[in-house]
Amino acid sequence: MPAVSKGDGMRGLAVFISDIRNCKSKEAEIKRINKELANIRSKFKGDKALDGYSKKKYVCKLLFIFLLGHDIDFGHMEAVNLLSSNKYTEKQIGYLFISVLVNSNSELIRLINNAIKNDLSSRNPTFMCLALHCIANVGSREMAEAFASEIPRILVAGDTMDSVKQSAALCLLRLYKTSPDLVLMGEWTSRVVHLLNDQHMGVVTAAISLITCLSQKNPDEFKTCVSLAVSRLSRIVSSASTDLQDYTYYFVPAPWLSCKLLRLLQCYPPPEDGAVKGRLVECLETILNKAQEPPKSKKVQHSNAKNAILFEAISLIIHYDSEPNLLVRACNQLGQFLQHRETNLRYLALESMCTLASSEFSHEAVKTHIETVINALKTERDVSVRQRAADLLYAMCDRSNAKQIVAEMLSYLETADYSIREEMVLKVAILAEKYAVDYSWYVDTILNLIRIAGDYVSEEVWYRVIQIVINRDDVQGYAAKTVFEALQAPACHENMVKVGGYILGEFGNLIAGDPRSSPLVQFNLLHSKFHLCSVPTRALLLSAYIKFINLFPETKATIQEVLRCDSQIRNSDVELQQRAVEYLKLSSIASTDVLATVLEEMPPFPERESSILAKLKKKKGPGTVSVTDLEDSKREGGELNGGGERGPDTAAMASSNASTPSPSADLLGIRSAAPVGAAPASAGSLLVDVFSEAGPAAPSAAVNEDGFLRDLEQPTETCDSLLVEGSGDSDSAPPSEDPAPPLPEADELLNKFVCKNNGVLFENQLLQIGIKSEYRQNLGRMYLFYGNKTSVQFASFTTTVSYPGELQSHILFVQSCSCMFRNQYTSDNWDTACYSTSPIFAH
Question: Which parts of the sequence are annotated with region: Disordered (predicted)?
Fold first, then answer.
């Protein structure tokens, strides 16, 4: 930048600023500003032409007034005129005014662009830098359209000065962030990448910011930068502080450039070239070694520079996740920061170790610091550090330390900050479910969680414990006993009442033998909480009361009296009133058998992804709860999800599927069955027997739509497998000689039939077949639905179910008009009523 001569000082501007500062009130300041604005406007409109100095002075005054918070609606043209000046100070003020006050939609943009083009082509480095700075400051789409193709040429030109290259790189980065579709590197890509080899460190520092941004969007185009970045990093790391004197910061050579290089390498996987990878590993080891060396200065700037490089290096090691030695060394290095006196370092160490805990190579090393992390959770003053400590405990948890970590987190919950309690509750619930090997411990943990932080226990948490208790017969009695004891506390949270009402209503009979928890005692305990609860909880308790009538007939009179009182049947809330009236009527007129059928136990819940994990993922943001967490939860918590009870049957079906062809074609009537004489499956698992393929050969069916309709009217005589076919004359269509080719999705259809309780089994352009089934102990019920997808009605459509003679006494076949054909092409939603099949079978 050229030196400012002594005569370039603007005395008028200094006087005006002094007057503003000396104003005693806001009114005096506004009066002085208005006077100055009137003077400037008269000067601009006067007949006498102003010289460059006067224009510069008045434009500076307008700029100062704008910075004071006042609107400026004139002077823009005078600022544009300053751009054509050959004096640096006048051109500088013009560009400054435009960068601050000119809107991207201004009518003057075209004139400004022309002035910028003139400066860019002037080859005067000072003017070129001013123009590039203006482009970057404004950053409008119009400027990107005008200069996006010109700036890369300036950047890679051999005769461009280093200072201009720095400005060009940062200007191009600004335009790429605002208008990425307009900044196309194309032929300039390789030459921009090779700026990493530039001799000037300032050019490399500016260029790497641009390359990092471009690599994040187009990694393949810039992958050649990896080897160059490793080479440059190696030279910096291995150099002494005296080798890069101009870029050494408190005895640390080029710390900003080193951090940017390490950040660039995190955009790519580990180098495939062995030499490059070896060189990079050496650099990372050198950085870790230098971090252990005694400090060369006691100044905080020195330690900050060293630690900045160290943490970026550790981030790169974590990103690669392929060097066990480096991962363990990084973990040990971070462990030293956990007790550092600097709060920021403790925070960063905890945050980095959270990521390290997810690596199989460093997970055990992270676990060695569990006591330090627990101590940080209890004693840290900064809530953000305590939150990171909780995150790390959650990340390092496994089956070996789950009980200890959950106990510590529960203990901390009692005094935790309100801002993180909800998140802590979710994490405790997830860990308790994910690593529970003892279901009684899981129930105790969740109930304790509700007791400690009931206000922060979301519906997903207590829904989940209900699902797990219902799906596990071995924990139902313990859950009923535990929740009964919890409800006896004088201060009981409403969520505990919800869980207690649900579990006692379903499984209160399991503890009714004890006089201390007799049916009437259970009812009185629940009803004592009724008047303190909200409307949804009261509705749940009313449902529990009617369940009590089914479980304990001796409580019928007492409960009916409660339902009959005015506070229930004339309740102002419609939901409570309706439940009270309906439950009272149901208990009065229904027989014991009907009541038992209507109020039977809840069936097991289907296996599904934990809703608590989904809630935590939503709360923490994308990417926080990893896919591995979700998969681990499904795999390790599958038994808790309700899959445990049906495990043997599922395993048997999987074994049957592996050893026999898919029977889904039999179900749909489009593939032949097993040959006659095949040995029937054992009766150990009824589901396997029902779905087995042992039986006489079935005729093949055409796969096309016409053939499928023809088969509906021409069934075959089968008696040894569960087939669903249309009724008709079996003699009218002789079986074909060759079996029809199997459906490509036959295995998928079988999986749907065997593993799903409901869903679509088959669908083409004409017909849709769906299934819905439910099972309870030794009983099962299955519904098959047929949907008409054509514009015409199916005439004389009936269904039959064939089954082995030995199963006839176990299967009750029911036909009902509960299914209707759905016609998607007529004005009315449902067309002709038709039968649905509903076989009911039992052991």
Answer: 622-666, 721-745
Residue of 294, 292, 282, 298 whose CA lies nearest to 237: 282
Indicate if the pLDDT at residue 5 is higher than 90.
no
Angle between helices 201-217 and 225-238 (to 10 degrees): 140
Question: 284-303 pLDDT, tens per residue?
Answer: 999 999 998 888 888 999 99
Q: How far apart are CA 278 and CA 641, in angstroms?
A: 47
pLDDT of 667 over the 80 cut: no
Cβ-contact 181, 214 below 8 angstroms: no
The CA-CA-CA angle for residues 326, 329, 334, to 5°, reads: 125
**Separation of alpha carbons 648 and 8, rounded Å:** 92
Select from 402, 494, 473 the least CA-distant residue to 441. 402
Residue 58 annotated as part of some ligand binding site: yes
**Residue-wise DSSP of 684-746:** T-HHHHHT---SPPPPP--SSHHHHHHHHHS-----SS-EEEE-S-GGGSPPPSSPPPPPTTH
CA-derived radius of gyration, the chain: 39
Question: Which tops the pLDDT comparison, 95 or 666?
Answer: 95
- If residue 648 lies in a helix (H) or strand (E), which one and from where to where? helix 647-659
User: Is residue 53 annotated as involved in ligand binding?
Assistant: yes
- Dihedrals phi, psi of 756, to nearest 5 degrees: -105, 145
The separation between CA 257 and the C-alpha centre of its own chain, rounded to angstroms, equals 33
Residue 751 pLDDT > 90 = no
Could you tell me the CA-to-CA distances from 833 to 33, 420, 635, 740, 786 in Å, in that order? 85, 56, 44, 32, 11
Distance separating alpha carbons of residues 469 and 642, to the nearest angstrom: 9
**Matching residue, tokens 């509700």:** 450
748 pLDDT more than 90: no
Answer yes or no: is 59 a known binding residue.
yes
Give the pLDDT of residue 752. 64
Fill in the amino acid letter for 55.
K
Helix axes 418-434, 383-396, angle to 10 degrees: 10
Give the residue among 490, 531, 533, 525 at the shortest CA–CA distance from 508.
525
Contacts of 398 (CB under 8 A, 6+ apart): 363, 367, 435
CA count, 13 A, side-chain hemisphere, 63:
21
pLDDT at 443: 92
821 or 501, which is more confident = 501
Task: Give the CA angle between residues 510, 514, 517 to the nearest 5°.
Answer: 80
pLDDT given at position 809: 61
Please name the residue that has the structure tokens 């499928």: 708
Give the whole-angstrom CA distance, residue 500 versus residue 522: 10
Contact 573, 614 (CB under 8 A): no
Strand 767-776 with 779-788, pairing: antiparallel
* Runs of H (alpha helix) within 4-82: 11-21, 26-45, 52-67, 76-82
Phi, psi of 100 (to 5 degrees): -95, -40
Q: Which of 687-696, 727-736, 748-757, 778-787 has the highest mean pLDDT?
A: 778-787
- Tell me which residue has tokens 């190579």: 361
pLDDT score recorded for residue 38: 94
pLDDT of residue 354: 92
Question: Does 464 count as an annotated binding residue?
Answer: no
Q: What are phi and psi of 567, to 5 degrees?
A: -65, -15
Instruction: Give the C-alpha separation, 23 to 20, whole Å.
Output: 5
The string of pLDDT tens digits covering residues 110-132 is 889 999 999 999 889 999 999 99
Residue 596: band (very low, low, confident or very high) from pLDDT cuts 50, 70, 90? confident
The tens digit of pLDDT for each residue in 760-775 reads 778 887 788 888 877 7
Is 11 annotated in a binding site? The answer is yes
E strand or H helix at 833? strand 830-842
